[in-house]
């Protein structure tokens, strides 16, 4: 659950002399965006068997059916229905762009879902997250961006490597002793063009279900063809990174 604590990262602000502030809105909106991504990922996970084997039935796995399940999951975890957010507000527009991105990605993968099984098709929660983040960022057209990244030694897909800000959120904050587990790190950063951007990094940790691919023995190739990272339960596994333009 995204906490609403805002830790303002002062360096960017001091350099330019202006003080750009994060609003409550920024934290709430990025909480909804991260929550919807997590909800969709949970739906992929819950339906992994049916995605891998159409003989098990694929009702509700088309774009709109999948989105309905993701909305139900979001509601279950947050107590909110994203359709209740005023669609004319910034948060409402962005969450709708993300929901449209989910439908786009699921519809684009119907032939994968329908390919005969049982077989591993590679459409897993991490791939869903990357594709939805890309589709969302494209739809949001500079107003917002989303990405799932990880500590550099864990990154599998080169597209997901952390940028400088994400890297310092990981090394200086999430991996420092005493950082409260699960607490996001955020900052408002003035850009050279005079505009500010709100950035937030939300840490994620390995659960038991992750370790079949990211666990031990380190270096052994997992079912997806990547060498396992040797991670342990509860280790920092990744970061949901969101930017909101001011
Ligand atoms: C079936 C094997 C498998 C399982 C289980 C799995 N992952 Fe992954 N994970 C992958 C693959 C493959 C990728 C690369 C996806 C891509 O192409 O972007 C990946 C990518 C990631 C990334 C994005 C950064 C990167 O390395 O490219 C994070 C973060 C991540 N996984 C965390 C987790 C967490 C946390 C869990 C458990 C909740 C988990 N994974 C479960 C296989 C798995």
How would you characterize the overall build of this protein?
With 246 residues, the protein is α+β, with helices and mostly antiparallel strands. The chain has one domain (11-245). The protein is 43% helix and 13% strand. It contains nine helices and four strands. It has a four-stranded antiparallel beta sheet with strand order 1-4-3-2, sandwiched between helices. A hairpin with a 5-residue loop joins strand 2 (185-190) and strand 3 (196-205). Helix 2 runs parallel beside helix 5 (90-108) and helix 5 packs across helix 7 (125-140). The radius of gyration is 18 Å and the shape is globular. The two termini are 24 Å apart. Residues 1-18 have low confidence and may be disordered. Heme C is lined by residues 124, 126-127, 130, 148, 150, 154-157, 160, 204, 206-207, 209-210, 212-214, 222-224, 226, 237-238.
Brief characterization of the structure:
With 246 residues, the protein is an alpha+beta fold.
What structural class do helix, strand and pairing data support?
alpha+beta
Helix content: 40-55%
Largest sheet features? 4 strands, antiparallel
The rough form would be described as: globular
Features:
246 residues, alpha+beta, single chain, globular, binds heme C, disordered N terminus
Per-chain topology:
Elements: H1 11-16, H2 24-46, H3 48-52, H4 63-78, H5 90-108, H6 110-114, H7 125-140, E1 144-149, H8 164-174, E2 185-190, E3 196-205, H9 211-214, E4 236-245
Antiparallel strand pairs: 1-4, 2-3, 3-4
Helix pairs in contact: 2-4, 2-5, 2-7, 4-5, 5-7
The structure holds heme C (HEC).
């Amino acid at each position: 659950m995204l906490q609403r604590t805002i830790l303002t990262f002062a360096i960017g602000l001091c350099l330019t002399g202006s003080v750009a502030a994060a609003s409550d809105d920024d934290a709430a909106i990025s909480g909804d965006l991260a929550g919807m991504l997590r909800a969709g990922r949970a739906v992929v996970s819950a339906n992994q068997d049916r995605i891998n084997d159409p003989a098990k039935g694929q009702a509700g796995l088309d774009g709109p059916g999948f989105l309905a399940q993701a909305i139900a999951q979001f509601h279950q975890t947050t107590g909110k229905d994203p359709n209740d957010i005023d669609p004319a507000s910034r948060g409402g527009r962005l969450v709708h762009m993300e929901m449209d991105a989910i439908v786009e990605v699921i519809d684009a993968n119907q032939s994968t879902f329908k390919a005969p099984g049982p077989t591993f098709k590679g459409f897993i929660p991490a791939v869903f997250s990357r594709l939805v983040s890309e589709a969302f960022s494209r739809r949001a057209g500079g107003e917002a961006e989303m990405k799932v990244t990880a500590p550099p030694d864990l990154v599998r897909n080169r597209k997901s490597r952390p940028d400088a800000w994400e890297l310092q959120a990981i090394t200086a904050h999430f991996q420092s002793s005493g950082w409260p587990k699960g607490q996001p790190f955020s900052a408002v950063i003035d850009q050279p063009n005079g505009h500010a951007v709100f950035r937030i990094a939300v840490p994620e940790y390995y659960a038991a279900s992750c370790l079949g691919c990211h666990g031990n023995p380190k270096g052994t190739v997992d079912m997806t063809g990547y060498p396992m990272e040797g991670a342990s339960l509860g280790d920092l596994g990744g970061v949901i990174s969101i930017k909101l333009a001011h």
